[in-house]
Design goal:
Chain A: Keywords: Cytoplasm, Nucleus, Phosphoprotein, Proteasome. Chain A: This is Probable proteasome subunit alpha type-7. Chain A: Its main location: cytoplasm. Chain A: It holds the Pfam family Proteasome. Chain A: It is found in: Cytoplasm; Nucleus. The complex is a heterodimer of chains A (about 250) and B (about 200). In chain A, about 40% of the residues lie in helices and about 25% in strands. The longest helix of chain A has 25 residues, at about 230-250. Chain A has helices at about 20-30, 80-100, 110-120, 170-175, 185-200, 230-250, and strands spanning about 35-40, 45-50, 65-70, 75-80, 135-140, 145-150, 155-160, 160-165, 210-215, 225. With about 250 residues, chain A is α+β, with helices and mostly antiparallel strands. Chain A is built from 6 helices and 10 strands, in the order H-E-E-E-E-H-H-E-E-E-E-H-H-E-E-H. In chain A, a hairpin with a 7-residue loop joins strand 9 and strand 10 (about 225). Chain A has a single domain, classed as Glutamine Phosphoribosylpyrophosphate, subunit 1, domain 1 (4-Layer Sandwich). In chain A, helix 2 (about 80-100) packs across helix 3. Chain B has about 200 residues and is α+β, with helices and mostly antiparallel strands. Chain B has helices spanning about 50-70, 75-90, 135-140, 150-165; strands spanning about 5-10, 10-15, 20, 25-30, 35, 40-45, 95-105, 110-115, 120, 125-130, 175-180, 185-190. The longest helix of chain B is centred in the first third of the chain and has 22 residues, at about 50-70. The chains are: A alpha+beta (about 250), B alpha+beta (about 200).
Chain lengths: ~250, ~200
């Protein structure tokens, strides 16, 4: 980063070697945020993220970071929480405007495209800063399930499995092992919990909470939180696997 | 004006008279009030010619943009919602009564009526324009769902002909568009031709 300190990172303009530093810094903001993953399976999509419980005074299970945008759309964000809330609000506006104009639910590809374009605008003007969030867009419509991840510079790709935040590398390695074309939603919930547990920092034993939502055949196409019972079952499974792996490592020694 | 559209066994049929007036003067006696919006969606126009032509042109444009942007044809429901939204948002400036009808493989044939205020009504049979007031009784008595194409054409031809005889603002010829899985077919009826307009009064 030779151009750092020469002023090219103080606004949204190109450095002589063709980089947008403010946009790159936005990625840095997300790199240290809590892990968030999305899994697109055969019959639906799962969104899952891990929240560090920063205070015992916080009420569990109410401070949500995955929002419903329409009946069939959920968006999970990781990074700057207020930025994420803004993205969700914007997505809701897009979804209702589509419904007003066309009388039908907004397709997954369209909501991802609209959000990508919106986020990109914030890399163009000196009066604003880019969004410090990765947004996971999960939808289930007449075309089937969709999962998109919108990056801070406005780029968005469609994924079978996506991960962002602190544990993204471990999570991506685990996601690559899944067979997405045959995976069912209920099994994907377990996998999502397992993957989030696998990303856990060993030394850092802070309290964690998992937030998970899904949309697909299992939910009649409606984006909704994974039921408590199923989530607890999945977390128990994840804990068993995590403990088992630890034993394996111990035996190898 | 008299405009009508109905759902029949295999799709939809739209029909209209062809009279355009400026006060008592017939400005055009062979007007085409059936306007194509997409490959498989058409609309019947009634009210101000200028207003309805403009709304239809805009609809045509938005629907073609929809296809380009989103990679699939808009559904009949989408076209009708868009039309009703335009009529509703501009209700103070417009004098436009539309009937949007079309056929697509997914939902089959659909007919939507969009009267003056911009409301949206999905109907098996829709009639509109000044002439429609004279044929409510005829339609109530004779319309059936799931008619064959021949039955439906005959029904609409008679309905529009009856309205044309009693309504001073309707007349000229009868135009039709038939939409089904085979695509589009147009029909034309006029006096002293091989396809005459039925006569009821004596």
């Amino acid at each position: 980063m030779s151009s750092i300190g020469t002023g090219y990172d103080l606004g949204l303009f190109f450095s002589p070697d063709g980089r947008l530093f403010q946009a790159e810094y936005a990625y840095k903001a997300v790199e240290n945020a809590s892990t968030c993953i999305g899994i697109k399976c055969e019959d639906g999509v799962i969104l899952a993220l891990e929240k560090v419980v920063t205070s015992k005074l916080l009420k569990p299970r109410v401070n949500n970071r995955i929002g419903s945008v329409d009946r069939h759309i959920g968006i999970a964000t990781t990074g700057f929480i207020p930025d994420g809330q803004h993205i969700v609000k914007r997505a809701r506006d897009e979804a209702t405007s589509w419904r007003d104009n066309y009388g039908s639910p907004i397709p997954g590809t369209v909501i991802a495209d609209r959000l990508g374009n919106y986020v990109q605008l914030f890399t163009c003007y000196s009066s604003v800063r880019p969004f410090g969030v990765m947004s996971f867009v999960a939808t289930y419509d007449s075309e089937g399930p969709h999962l998109y991840m919108v990056e801070p510079n406005g780029v968005y790709w469609g994924y079978n499995g996506a991960a962002a935040g602190k544990g993204r590398q471990v999570a991506r390695n685990e996601l690559e092992k899944l067979n997405f074309s045959s995976l069912k939603m209920k099994d994907a919930v377990k996998e999502a919990a397992r993957i989030l547990y696998a990303t856990h920092d060993e030394e850092n034993n802070k309290e964690h909470e998992i937030e998970m939502t899904w949309v697909g055949v299992e939910t009649n196409g409606i984006h909704t939180p994974v039921p408590d019972e199923l989530l607890q079952e999945a977390e128990a499974y994840a804990r068993r696997i995590a403990d088992g792996e630890e034993e394996d490592i111990a035996m190898q020694e | 004006t008299t405009i009508t559209a109905l759902r029949y066994k295999d799709g939809v049929i739209l029909a209209a008279d062809s009279r355009t007036t400026m006060g008592a003067y017939i400005a055009n006696r062979v007007t085409d009030k059936l306007t194509q919006l997409t490959d498989n969606i058409w609309c019947c126009r009634s009210g101000s010619a200028a207003d309805t032509q403009t709304v239809a042109d805009l609809l045509k444009y938005y629907l073609s943009m929809y296809r380009i942007q989103f990679g699939h044809d808009p559904s009949v429901h989408t076209a009708a919602t868009l039309a009703s939204e335009m009529c509703y948002q501009n209700k103070n400036m417009l004098s436009a009564g539309l009937i949007v009808a079309g056929y697509d493989e997914k939902t089959g044939g659909d007919v939507y009526s969009i009267p003056l205020g911009g409301s949206l009504h999905k109907q098996p049979l829709a009639i509109g324009g000044s002439g429609s007031a004279f044929i409510y009784g005829f339609c109530d008595a004779n319309f059936r769902e799931n008619m064959t194409q021949e039955e439906a054409v005959e029904f609409l031809k008679n309905a529009v002909a009856l309205a044309m005889e009693r309504d001073g603002s309707s007349g000229g010829t009868i135009r039709m568009v038939i939409l089904n899985k085979d695509g589009m077919e147009r029909k034309f009826f006029a006096i002293d031709t091989a396809n005459p307009i039925p006569v009821f009064t004596h």
